[in-house]
Write a structure and sequence with these properties.
heterodimer; A: alpha+beta; Multidrug efflux transporter AcrB transmembrane fold; Alpha-Beta Plaits; 14 strands; rod-shaped; B: 300 residues; alpha+beta; elongated
Chain lengths: 447, 300
C-alpha cells in the first residue's frame, strides 16, 4: 500500500515536472510562437464564412473539383497576402471558413480572397459601318463578350487570366502610379498576338469580373508580356491585390460572405488582461475558502488544484494545433476550476462524515473516496453530454466561441476528475500515512 | 436542525411567483434575438474624440439605417443594423468619421446573413432537443436503481425546467429593460446550466436513495430532510467556490462574455435553490400524495 503510494507520488511529480518544463518560462514557451493558440477573440483578426454559388460553375467539372480548386486558390491568395497562421477549412458541401488572425486591413483582405478575379479583354464595339459605337456621354462602348482568338489547336479561345504565367506590381516611371505587369504562357502569347494585332491603334478594354479597369490604345503587336494600368488613382495595395489574384487564378465559382466576425487586436488584448485579472481574483478567493473551511485537506486540494492548472495549460500548449484558447474557453477554464473543487468537496465532506462516524483516519480517507466516486462520476456525465452537443452546434456555423467553450470545459472536467481521484487521493494517503497530522481538527472535524 | 421539508409550501410559493413573473415576461416581452438568429450587422465602435449617442443615431438615419439599434457600453458604442455587404463597411466608417469629425476604431464587427441565421436558429433548436433527450436518457440511467425511477426522474426534470425558465425569463426582462440580446453564447450558457442543475439534483437524490436503503427513518419526509442536510455542506460549498470564480468573471472579466457569464450566474443560483428547496420536496409531496394539502398548509 505504502509502496504503491510512493510510486504514484513519483509518477505525479514526474508528470508535474514535465508539464512545468513544457510551459516555463511562460513568456517564451507558453506564450511564445509554439505556445498556446489564441482564438480570434483574444488576439484579434477576422473570420469569414463563404458560401460558393455552385449553380454557376462550369458544368464540365464536378462540385467537388470546383470546391477543391477554389480552396487551393484561396490558400495561395492568403499565403501571398502574408497573414500569419491562416486557417482555411471546407465546411459542408459548399462552404469555406477562412480565419485570418492579426489582419489589420480586413476590407482589403476580403476583397483579395473573395473576388472571383476573372481577367479578360474586350474589343471595341463597332457599328455596321465599322465606326466606333458611342454612349450618350460620347464614350467608347466595348463588347460584352471577352475577346477570342484562334488557339494553336485551331479552336476559338477566350483570352483570360488562365493563360497568365506571372503577374507582379510595378511603378509607372512617368506617372509614378502603380500598375500590374504580366507575362503570358505560350498559348496566351499566341492569342494575345492575334488580338493586339487586329486592334492596332484601337482601344482594348481590360476587364476584371466584367468591370473595366482601363482601356489603353494598342500601340504595337504584343506577345508575351503586357501591363495593366488603372484609369483611376489607386493605392499600391490595390495593385498588389490584383497581382496576387491574377497569380492564384480566377475562382471557379463566385463566393458570398454569409458570416463575418472581426475583433480588433486591442479588444482582444483587453479581454486577455481582464480575464487574467478575473481568474486571479477568483482563484485566490477559492483557495482561501478551501483553506479556511477544510484546513489540511483544503491545503492538499489547493496543491492539487495548482497541479490541475499546470496540467491544463500544458495540455493546451501541447495540443495547440487542435485546441484553441478563446475568451469563453478561459471562462470554461476558470469554471472547470470551480468544478474541480466540487470533486474535492464531495470527497472531503464524505471524509468528515466518516471521521465523525468514528473511523480511523486511514479508513476514513479510503471510504471517503470510494463513496464520493459514484457521485463525482454521475454528476460530471451531464457536463460531458452538454459539451459534446455544444461542440457539434459550434461546428455547424463556425462559431469558434461556442466550440472553444465546449472543448475547454470537456478537457477541464476530465482533468478535474483525474486530479481529484489520483492526485488528491495520493497526497491525502501520504499525509495520513506519514502521521504528520493525526488530530481530526486538522481535517475540519471537532475532536 | 434546519427543517427544509416542513417549509416546503413557502419554497414552492417563491418558485411559483418567480415562474409566473418570468413566464408572463416571456409571453409579453419574448426574447430579443441577436444577429446570430436574425441576421444583420453589429459592431462596436470607439470614437476619439467621444461623440454623443444622439449625434450617432442621426448619422445612421442619414446613412439610410433608421433601424439602427445603438447602445453606449462604457466609452464604446454597440450598433446593430440590417445586414450590409463587406465593401459597404469601409464607406460607412469613413462616412461616419468625416461627418462626426472623430476617429473610429472598429473594436469588433460581425455580419451574419439571414440565410445562415435561420440555420443557426434551427441548429440551436436541434441542439436543445438533443440535449433534452440525452439528459432524459441520462436521468433514466442514473435513477435506474431508485425505487420509482419515473417519479424521481420527473422531479429532477421539473427542477431543471424551473432553472432554465428562470434564466431565460430573466433575459427576457433584461431584453426589455436593457436591450440585452440572445445569441449563440446564450444557448451555450443555458445548456451548461442544464448540465449543472442536473448534477446538483443527482447528488441530493443519490443521498436520499442511500439513506432509504439504510432505513434511517420510516418517514420519507424525515429521510429527505436528513439527506438534504447531509448534502447541504457540499451543495453550499460547491456553489460558493463556483460563485467565487463566476463573480470574479462577472465583475472583472471582459465585456464580450459578460452576458454569457450572467447566464451561468443566474443558472447557478437557481440550480442551487431548486436542488435544495424544490426537487426533494416535490418527491415527498408526490410520495405522500399531499398535493391537496399544499394550499391549506399556508393557513397554519
Amino acid at each position: 500500500m505504502k509502496k504503491k503510494n510512493v510510486g504514484l507520488l513519483i509518477f505525479i511529480l514526474a508528470l508535474v515536472g514535465l508539464a512545468l518544463w513544457s510551459i516555463v518560462p511562460l513568456n517564451t514557451k507558453l506564450l511564445g510562437p509554439d505556445g498556446l493558440t489564441l482564438g480570434l477573440d483574444l488576439k484579434g483578426g477576422s473570420q469569414l464564412l463563404y458560401k460558393a454559388d455552385l449553380s454557376s460553375k462550369d458544368p464540365s467539372v464536378t462540385d467537388e473539383e470546383a470546391m477543391s480548386s477554389v480552396m487551393d486558390k484561396i490558400q495561395r491568395r492568403v499565403n501571398e497576402y502574408g497573414a500569419a497562421e491562416p486557417v482555411i477549412q471546407r465546411q459542408g458541401s459548399d462552404r469555406i471558413l477562412v480565419q485570418l488572425p492579426g489582419v489589420e486591413d480586413i476590407t482589403e483582405a476580403i476583397k483579395l480572397i473573395g473576388q472571383t478575379a476573372r481577367l479578360d479583354f474586350r474589343e471595341q464595339k463597332l457599328d455596321e459601318n465599322g465606326e466606333p459605337v458611342l454612349d450618350e456621354e460620347g464614350n467608347w462602348v466595348f463588347e460584352d463578350e471577352p475577346a477570342k482568338a484562334e488557339g494553336r489547336d485551331g479552336e476559338q479561345r477566350e483570352l483570360t487570366g488562365e493563360y497568365l504565367k506571372l503577374a507582379r506590381t510595378d511603378i509607372d516611371p512617368y506617372s509614378a502610379s502603380p500598375l500590374v505587369v504580366f507575362e503570358w504562357d505560350s498559348e496566351g502569347a499566341y492569342l494575345f498576338e492575334q488580338i493586339t494585332g487586329r486592334n492596332l491603334q484601337k482601344p482594348l478594354a481590360i476587364s476584371l469580373d466584367d468591370e473595366m479597369i482601363s482601356a489603353p490604345i494598342v500601340q504595337s503587336i504584343i506577345r508575351d508580356r503586357g501591363q495593366i494600368e488603372f484609369n483611376r488613382p489607386v493605392a499600391m495595395a490595390e495593385a498588389e491585390t490584383l497581382a496576387i489574384q491574377l497569380n492564384s487564378g480566377a475562382l471557379d465559382v463566385p463566393l458570398v460572405i454569409i458570416d463575418q466576425r472581426d475583433v480588433d487586436a486591442s479588444l482582444g488584448a483587453d479581454s486577455v488582461n481582464k480575464s487574467i485579472l478575473a481568474a486571479e481574483i477568483g482563484v485566490i478567493l477559492l483557495l482561501l475558502f478551501m483553506l479556511v473551511y477544510y484546513r489540511l485537506p483544503g491545503l492538499v486540494a489547493c496543491l492539487s488544484l495548482a497541479i490541475y492548472g499546470v496540467f491544463l495549460l500544458a495540455i493546451f500548449n501541447f495540443f495547440s494545433a487542435y485546441l484553441t484558447l478563446t475568451l469563453p474557453g478561459i471562462a470554461a477554464f476558470i469554471l472547470s476550476l470551480g468544478m474541480a473543487v466540487d470533486a474535492n468537496v464531495l470527497i472531503f465532506e464524505r471524509l468528515k462524515e466518516e471521521l465523525r462516524a468514528g473511523r480511523t483516519l486511514g479508513a476514513a480517507v479510503e471510504s471517503g473516496f470510494d463513496r464520493a466516486w459514484t457521485a463525482i462520476r454521475d454528476s460530471n456525465i451531464t457536463t460531458f453530454i452538454a459539451c459534446i452537443i455544444l461542440f457539434w452546434l459550434g461546428g455547424t456555423f463556425g462559431a469558434f466561441m461556442v466550440r472553444g467553450f465546449a472543448l475547454t470545459l470537456f478537457v477541464g472536467v476530465a482533468m478535474s476528475m483525474f486530479t481529484a481521484i489520483v492526485i488528491t487521493r495520493t497526497f491525502l494517503r501520504l499525509v495520513v500515512a506519514s502521521r504528520l497530522a493525526t488530530n481530526p481538527v486538522a481535517y475540519g472535524v471537532r475532536a | 436542525m434546519i427543517d427544509f421539508v416542513g417549509k416546503k409550501q413557502w419554497f414552492f410559493l417563491i418558485s411559483a411567483v418567480a415562474l409566473i413573473v418570468v413566464i408572463i415576461s416571456l409571453a409579453v416581452f419574448k426574447l430579443q434575438p441577436g444577429i446570430d438568429f436574425t441576421g444583420g450587422t453589429s459592431m462596436t465602435l470607439n470614437f476619439t474624440p467621444q461623440v454623443e449617442q444622439s449625434q450617432l443615431r442621426q448619422e445612421f438615419i442619414n446613412l439610410g439605417h433608421p433601424e439602427a439599434v445603438i447602445q453606449g457600453t462604457g466609452g464604446d458604442f454597440f450598433i446593430r443594423i440590417k445586414e450590409i455587404a463587406a465593401q459597404e463597411r469601409e464607406t460607412m466608417i469613413e462616412g461616419l468619421e468625416t461627418s462626426l469629425g472623430s476617429e473610429i476604431t472598429v473594436r469588433d464587427y460581425s455580419t451574419v446573413s439571414p440565410y445562415i441565421a435561420m440555420e443557426t436558429a434551427r441548429n440551436a433548436g436541434i441542439a436543445v432537443i438533443i440535449a433534452a433527450l440525452a439528459m432524459l436518457f441520462y436521468i433514466a440511467w442514473a435513477f435506474r436503481r431508485m425505487p420509482k425511477p419515473l417519479r424521481w426522474g420527473t422531479c429532477a426534470i421539473i427542477a431543471l425546467v424551473h432553472n432554465v425558465l428562470i434564466v431565460v425569463g430573466v433575459f427576457s426582462i433584461l431584453g426589455r429593460v436593457a436591450n440585452v440580446e440572445v445569441d449563440a453564447m446564450f444557448i451555450t450558457g443555458v445548456l451548461t446550466v442544464v448540465g449543472y442543475s442536473i448534477n446538483n439534483t443527482v447528488v441530493v437524490f443519490d443521498r436520499i436513495r442511500e439513506n432509504m436503503s439504510k432505513g434511517i427513518s420510516p418517514d420519507f419526509a424525515v429521510t429527505v430532510n436528513c439527506s438534504l442536510l447531509e448534502t447541504l455542506a457540499r451543495s453550499l460549498n460547491t456553489t460558493l467556490t463556483t460563485l467565487c470564480v463566476i463573480l470574479a468573471l462577472l465583475l472583472f472579466g471582459g465585456a464580450t462574455i459578460h452576458h454569457f457569464i450572467l447566464v451561468l450566474f443566474i443558472g447557478l443560483l437557481a440550480g442551487t435553490y431548486s436542488s435544495m428547496c424544490i426537487a426533494g420536496q416535490l418527491l415527498i409531496v408526490w410520495e405522500k400524495r399531499e398535493w391537496g394539502k399544499l394550499l391549506p398548509s399556508f393557513a397554519k
